[in-house]
Structures are given as C-alpha cells and as structure tokens.
Amino acid sequence: SSTAHKPRGSFILFEGGDRCGKTTQSENLVKHLSSKGVDVALWKFPDRQTAIGQMINAYLQGKTETDDAAVHLLFSANRWEKRESMLAALSAGQTLVVDRYAYSGAAFTAAKGIPGLDLEWCKAPDKGLPAPDATIYLSMMPEAAAKRGGYGSERYEKEEMQRSVAQRFQDLRDATWHTLDAARSIEAVGSDVTRIAEAAIEACQEGKPLEHLWL
Ligand code: FDM
C-alpha cells in the first residue's frame, strides 16, 4: 500500500530447555539483524529487574519458598507488566527477540505434576498476551544438554525436571512453532534461525496482524 505508516516489528520467541543454546542464538540473531539495519531489541523473561521479577529471582535461586500456584502467577504478572512497552515497541516498528515467554511459563509449572495445576490452568493467566509471530523451539535431549558443561544451580536445572518440561512443550506446539535440532553446531542452528526470523519480519512488513495468546 502507499501508507506512510511504518510497518510493525516482529515478535520472535525462543523457547527450549536449559542449556539448549537459547541465549547464544538469541544474541547472535540480534547481532545479525542489527548488522542488516533492522531495528531490534533483545528481551528476556523472567525480567528479574522489576519488583515482581526480584521475587521470582529469589525463588529461582532457592532463597525463598513460594507456593507453586503463587509463583506461577508471578511469572505471568511479570509478562503482563511488560505488555504495554512490548506493544509500544512493536508498533513503533521494533522487532523483539524474546528469550522465554508464556510457553515456558505453562511448561515449567505443568511439569511439576501438581494436582489442579494442569496445562489448561497454567495457560489461563497468560490468555490475551501478545502472541509471538514465530516461536523457535530449540530441541535437545536433556542428557545431551546436561553434557554442555552441566546445568546450573537454580531450581528446575535437573535432568528429570527438564525431561518433563520437554514433554509439556510438545503439548504447547501451535502454528507459530518451529522445532530446530539444537544438538547441531551453533552455525547450523543459526542459519535456520536467521531464515525463520527473516520470514517472520517480512510477513509483518506485509501487514500480518499481531495475535493474542490462547483465546
Ligand atoms: N520459568 C521461566 C518459569 O518457570 N516460568 C516462566 O514463566 C518463565 C519465563 O525460570 F528454569 C523458568 C525457566 C527457567 C527459569 O529462566 C529461569 P532463565 O532463562 O534461566 O533465566
């Protein structure tokens, strides 16, 4: 069309288990897109800087014990409190590369197997949040991920939990989902990432509307 309006940015999400290479791939993608002149920013959830994020951080580091349902709602609130600035950035034309989001939220809590906290319950508080245009799921066997220098010391960084999380992620696959074999080299995974991200950005430039999660 001939409108002078700047096209919206694209919401590109990375999901996966711990040590699958999300951080490396998301940082490399941002560098690549910047070098091509794309207005892009890297976001990460949980955002541990906010008041809610600090409560989540203390929980993840084992400094506090918080009820599982309550902490789940904190993770969700940590996304809702960023919603406005997320929408503002996207509509100003900035592409957001995001490291974890609501799929992690649902997968990690549901993986605990607590009666009542099933996948539907876990998804409910995130309904209506901005949905990603592309979700890049970095798939890796927990055994292989653990060999990458071992898991860290935070809560959830255990092989058994990671196996359960991987199963829940499978239940969350949707139309935005791209599964990449993350056991390959950084370069091989990176070239698939670039292709998926550039297609997502192009679709947004051509007017693809922003969607909302799980309605
Ligand atoms: N995590 C992350 C959750 O349990 N729920 C959520 O909503 C999100 C976004 O927090 F174990 C878990 C996943 C991971 C931990 O993530 C911290 P990072 O990527 O290691 O900071």
Automatic annotation (TrEMBL):
Gene3D superfamilies, alphabetized: P-loop containing nucleotide triphosphate hydrolases (3.40.50.300)
Family according to the record: Belongs to the thymidylate kinase family.
Enzyme Commission designation: 2.7.4.9
Pathway(s) annotated for this protein in UniProt: Pyrimidine metabolism; dTTP biosynthesis
SUPFAM superfamilies: P-loop containing nucleoside triphosphate hydrolases
Alphabetized UniProt keyword annotations: ATP-binding, Kinase, Nucleotide biosynthesis, Nucleotide-binding, Transferase
Every Thymidylate kinase-like domain range: 14-192
EC class: transferase
Coiled coil: none
Listed PROSITE patterns: THYMIDYLATE_KINASE
Protein name, as recorded: dTMP kinase
PANTHER family from the UniProt entry: THYMIDYLATE KINASE (PTHR10344:SF1)
